[in-house]
Amino acid sequence: MLRYKLVVVGGGSGGCSVAAKFTRKLGKGQVAVIEPAEKHYYQPMWTMVGGGMKTVEQSARPMKDVLPAQADWIRERAVAFDPKSNKVTTSSGDEVTYEYLVVAMGIQINWDAIKGLKEALDTPGVCSNYSPKYAPKTFEELKAFREGNAIFTFPNTPIKCPGAPQKILYIADQYLRKAGKRDKATLIYNTSLPVLFGVKKYAESLWKVVEDRGIVVNNRRCLTEVRPDTREAVFVDLDRPEHQFMEKYELLHVTPNMSAPDVLKACPALTDAAGYVDVDKHTLQHNRHPNVFAIGDCSSVPTSKTAAAVAAECGVLGKNLWSVMSGGQCTASYDGYTSCPLVTGYSKCILAEFKFDGVPLETFPIDQGKERWAPFVMKKELMPFLYWQLMLKGYWNGPKVIRKALHLGMSD
Ligand code: FAD
C-alpha cells in the first residue's frame, strides 16, 4: 500500500498546477500524481491546430517534463475511489492512501454517444478539434473543401470550452474567403443551446459576426447520427424531439458529447447527481469530505469549463488546502472567473471574461466585446508561454492582480 500526504488524480492543467504548488511546500515523496497519459496537451491550442495556425506537436509535451520532479508519478488510471477510507485504487489494483486528495480528472469525451461518429471521423469530411488525433484533420478538410454545407455542431451536454465549437466556425469562414471558396459554401452552426453564447454581452457581439458573414445559426438542434457513406448528418429538434431531419455535409465539425468520468459516476459518495465532484463553489472543498478538493472540468463548480477557470481555481485551492493542512479553515473564495478567447478568424478575437452567473469580469479597461487584434496575439502567442512556463509550475493564478492594477483597484 502506497501512502502520501497528498494524492492528485489527473496530471492535466489542474492536476499538474496543484501538484507543482504543493510539491514545493511539502517536499519530495509527499505528493503523488496518478496519471496514465504519457503526453500532456495544451488543449486550447487545438483550435489553432484546426485552423492550420499551429501543429499538434506544438500543443504536446512529455508528461514527465511537466509533472513536478519531486512528485511521485503513478503511471496508471484511478479505477475506484473510497473517500471513507481515504483510498484510491489504480488500474494495476494497487491501493494508494492519502491524507488529502485533489481530484483533477477533467471531463470525459463520449465519442460513442453519437451514432456512427467514431467510424465517420476516419472518413472524408468529418473532423473534430476535441482530439489531438482529429484536430489536424480539421485543417486538411478545410483545404479539401470544394462546395456544399460546412456544418459545425454543439452537443446537448456540458462541454469544456463552450466557445471552441464556434471559434472553428469563424476560422473556417475566414479560410474559405481567403481560398476564394466562400461563395460555394453554406456555413451552418447547429447548436443544442437556446443561445449563441451563455453571456449576453458576448452573444450580442457574436450575433453581429454571424450576420455580417452570412452564417446560418440554428438553435436547439442536436446531432444524433452521422452517415459517412452518404455524407449525411441527422439532427433532432430539441424542442420537438419527434422531429428528426437530415442535412448533407461536405465538411462536418463535431463537438462530441461529454460527461463526468465514469469512475467518478461510480462513486456517489464523492459526486453530485451528474457525477461531478461535489465541492463548494467558492472554497473548492468537498461538501462531505473536508480532506478532498477538486479542480477544473471534473468539479461541480457552475462555471464555464476552461483552463482559465482552472488557473483562477488553482490560486484559491492552493490557499484553502494549505490552510486546512495547517489546521485552519478555508478563507479564499473563488468568484467563478473564466475566460474564452473567441477567435473570429486569423487575426481577431473577442476576449470573453466572466464570473458566476455570466457577469462580465474583464481584465482590460476597454470594451472586450469588440473583435480586436491584441487578444488574438495574446491567445496565439502569449497564452501558451504562460501555460507552460507559469501555470503548470503553479505560479499563474489568473489575471486578477493585473485586472486590479489596470482598473486602479476598482474591479473585483
Ligand atoms: P484536463 O486538462 O483535461 O486533464 C485531465 C487529466 O486527467 C488528463 O491528463 C487525463 O489523462 C487524466 N485522467 C483522466 N482520467 C483519469 C483517471 N481515471 N485516472 C487518472 N487520471 C485520469 N480553455 C481555455 O481556457 N481557453 C481556451 O481557449 C480553450 N480552448 C479549448 C479548445 C479545445 C478544442 C479544447 C478541447 C479545450 C479548450 N479549453 C480551453 C479547455 C481546457 O483545455 C480545459 O478546460 C482544461 O484543460 C481543464 O483542465 P483539467 O485539469 O480539469 O482537465
TrEMBL record:
> Cross-referenced InterPro entries, in alphabetical order?
FAD/NAD-bd_sf, FAD/NAD-binding_dom, Sulphide_quinone_reductase
Q: What class of enzyme is it?
A: oxidoreductase
Where is it localised? Mitochondrion
Checking Gene3D superfamilies in the record gives: FAD/NAD(P)-binding domain (3.50.50.60)
Coarse class of the primary localization is: mitochondrion
- GO aspect biological process, one term: sulfide oxidation, using sulfide:quinone oxidoreductase
- Kindly state which reaction or reactions the protein catalyses: a quinone + hydrogen sulfide + glutathione + H(+) = S-sulfanylglutathione + a quinol; ubiquinone-10 + hydrogen sulfide + sulfite + 2 H(+) = ubiquinol-10 + thiosulfate; ubiquinone-10 + hydrogen sulfide + glutathione + H(+) = S-sulfanylglutathione + ubiquinol-10
Which Enzyme Commission number(s) are listed? Answer: 1.8.5.8
Q: Which cofactor does it need?
A: FAD
Residue span(s) of domain FAD/NAD(P)-binding:
4-118
* Keywords, in A-Z order: FAD, Flavoprotein, Mitochondrion, Oxidoreductase, Quinone, Transit peptide
As one GO molecular function, the record gives: glutathione-dependent sulfide quinone oxidoreductase activity
**One Pfam family recorded for the sequence:** Pyr_redox_2
PANTHER family hit by this protein: SULFIDE:QUINONE OXIDOREDUCTASE (PTHR10632), SULFIDE:QUINONE OXIDOREDUCTASE, MITOCHONDRIAL (PTHR10632:SF2)
* Functional summary from the UniProt entry: Catalyzes the oxidation of hydrogen sulfide with the help of a quinone, such as ubiquinone-10, giving rise to thiosulfate and ultimately to sulfane (molecular sulfur) atoms. Requires an additional electron acceptor; can use sulfite, sulfide or cyanide (in vitro). It is believed the in vivo electron acceptor is glutathione.
Membership in a protein family: Belongs to the SQRD family.
What's the name of the protein?
A: Sulfide:quinone oxidoreductase, mitochondrial
Classification from the root reads: Eukaryota, Metazoa, Ecdysozoa, Arthropoda, Crustacea
Gene responsible for this protein = SQOR_0
